[in-house]
């Protein structure tokens, strides 16, 4: 009996040891997995999605399932960001509300103005009661608009008319920019011998209240080109700042990104990389050296070819960028660098970084005047955005709030919305390559056919509403069937806004050294996007018009 117990005891002990070792191994393996996850985890980017997801979205070109949807283009003014800066004090304006109007009326009462109806027979446009009447009328009529400031009314074309100009902002826009309108109002006499608005003219009808832009030269010629007199947006100031003296240059700290593989990629790829560089500069507390020359991808060109030499300011708001970030234009920076080094034994200290694997954290304490990142490796190792991957994603936040669409493009958006009196619905119709790819989007073509669209929209939008269609469908008459039920508006209905007689044409031509600028595919999509966001009812292709998934079959 004792021999049997002795013989079995080692087996039990070995079994216990085996189980203990197995449990310990599982524990160690779990700790290892958790550690790897903790190290590689990248927190959400402060824009819309996580850094890896947007990187994949913006750079994937081989797999059509994840091909970026370039029919909608979001920038900083379209999203609410926790990191967004407050309105600069110089630009802060209190909106005109009912409370403000009542205070104005109290001041008018203290003036003891006559209220004899005979005195009001002919409208005195400078009478403060006229402006109060217009302010209250606009407040009740345009509920999606924030009114910021008015000019004193001026005479219209008749004795009972006044032209009034004001600055405003759409409530759906997250920027602090101001836009202008001027309209003609016809007045009558209401109760207690007060003014009331009998009729209000349409968008930009009050031409006497329009103020021409103050410029020394109202015409400018370049070769055989002669520009019309400008009535532009005097609030746009996208001039390139100078560095000033050589000493000012030497006192600065700069982050300089050499051109990499991102050049001539899609615009979303460009932004993803550009904001990585700008974010690193902010992290390092340095001025970002900026190349204003943009290569527009063939995706946005009718010629289907990449086009170099486009100006950043055609597409984005450089003035706003200068307000919220420290940037210097590349040629201005190189001029200052060259000027300082000329004839001096002691050159500007430069730290050359030849691989993205040198992280921003490693450069944080570098004292060099210039940190020069070079991207000479083969693709995709030479993409700027690689700098912000891995551990760097925890430290570098892309400053999406710094990138707004060009004010010149936004003026076109405002013009289109204003011509519809801000009272319109919109549908985003995605067709193009996705509608042709039946393997990934089997129902999209049929679901966005004119008959299908009409059937679906009847369920969501009231008949005879203004209906703006944002679309990548190239055939203008494709949506004609919808005109039987709606007042259809397409971007091409407003071609005069970028024609050779337009404010946009004049402004961009001057910006481009007298050479006309094409209203290209990226500009079209940018305008379509912003008009779409200002609609009262907003219908999307995916989730509203078709059961197909936005990114292809089985991706919903």
UniProtKB/TrEMBL annotation:
Record InterPro entries: DUF7074, DUF7075
UniProt-listed Pfam families: DUF7074, DUF7075
Domain DUF7075: 248-541
Keywords: Membrane, Transmembrane, Transmembrane helix
Positions of transmembrane segments: 21-41
Gene Ontology CC terms: Golgi apparatus
Every DUF7074 domain range: 122-205
Protein name: O-fucosyltransferase family protein
Species in which this protein is naturally found: Gossypium laxum
């Amino acid at each position: 009996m004792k021999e049997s117990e002795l013989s079995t005891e080692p087996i039990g002990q070995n079994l216990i040891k085996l189980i203990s070792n197995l449990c310990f191994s599982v524990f160690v393996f779990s700790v290892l997995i958790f550690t790897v996850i903790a190290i590689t985890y990248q927190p959400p980017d402060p824009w819309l999605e996580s850094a890896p997801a947007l990187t994949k979205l913006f750079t994937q070109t081989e797999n059509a399932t994840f091909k970026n949807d370039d029919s909608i283009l979001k920038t900083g003014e379209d999203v609410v960001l926790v990191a967004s800066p407050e309105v600069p004090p110089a630009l802060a304006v209190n909106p005109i509300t009912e409370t403000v109007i009542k205070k104005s009326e109290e001041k008018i009462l203290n003036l003891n103005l006559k209220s004899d109806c005979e005195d009001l027979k002919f409208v005195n446009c400078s009478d403060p009661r006229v402006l109060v009447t217009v302010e209250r009328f606009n407040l009740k009529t345009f509920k999606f608009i924030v009114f910021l400031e008015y000019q004193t009314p001026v005479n219209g074309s008749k004795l009972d008319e006044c032209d009034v100009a004001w600055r405003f902002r759409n409530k759906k826009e997250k920027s602090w920019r101001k836009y202008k309108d001027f309209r003609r109002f016809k007045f009558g006499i209401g109760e207690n011998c007060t003014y009331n608005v009998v009729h209000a003219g349409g968008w930009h009808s009050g031409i006497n209240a329009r103020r021409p832009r103050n410029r020394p030269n109202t015409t400018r010629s370049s070769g055989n080109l002669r520009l019309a007199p400008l009535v532009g947006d005097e609030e746009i100031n996208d001039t390139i700042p100078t560095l000033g003296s050589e000493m000012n240059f030497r006192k600065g700290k700069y982050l300089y990104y050499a051109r990499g593989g991102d050049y001539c990629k899609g615009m979303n790829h460009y932004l993803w990389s550009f904001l990585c560089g700008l974010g690193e500069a902010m992290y390092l507390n340095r001025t970002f050296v900026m190349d204003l020359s943009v290569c527009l991808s063939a995706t946005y060109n009718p010629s289907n070819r990449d086009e170099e030499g486009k100006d950043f300011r055609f597409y984005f708001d450089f003035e706003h960028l200068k307000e919220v970030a420290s940037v210097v234009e590349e040629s201005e920076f190189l001029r200052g660098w060259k000027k300082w080094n000329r004839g001096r034994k002691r050159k500007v200290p430069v730290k050359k970084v030849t691989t993205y694997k040198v992280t921003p954290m490693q450069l944080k304490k570098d004292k060099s005047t210039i940190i020069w990142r070079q991207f000479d490796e083969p693709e995709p190792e030479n993409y700027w955005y690689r700098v912000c991957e891995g551990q760097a994603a925890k430290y570098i936040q892309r400053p999406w709030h710094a990138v707004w669409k060009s004010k010149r493009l936004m003026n076109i958006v405002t013009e289109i919305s204003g011509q519809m009196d801000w009272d319109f619905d919109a549908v985003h119709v995605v067709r193009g390559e996705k509608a042709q790819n039946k393997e990934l989007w089997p129902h999209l073509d049929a679901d966005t056919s004119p008959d299908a669209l009409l059937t679906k929209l009847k369920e969501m939008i009231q008949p005879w509403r203004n209906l703006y269609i944002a679309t990548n469908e190239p055939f203008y008459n494709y949506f004609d069937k919808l005109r039987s039920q709606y007042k259809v508006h397409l971007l091409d209905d407003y071609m005069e806004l970028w024609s050779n007689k337009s404010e946009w044409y004049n402004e961009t031509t001057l910006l481009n050294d007298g050479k006309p600028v094409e209203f290209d595919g990226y500009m079209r999509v940018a305008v379509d996007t912003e008009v779409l966001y200002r609609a009262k009812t907003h219908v999307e292709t995916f989730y509203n018009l078709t059961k197909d998934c936005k990114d292809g079959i089985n991706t919903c």
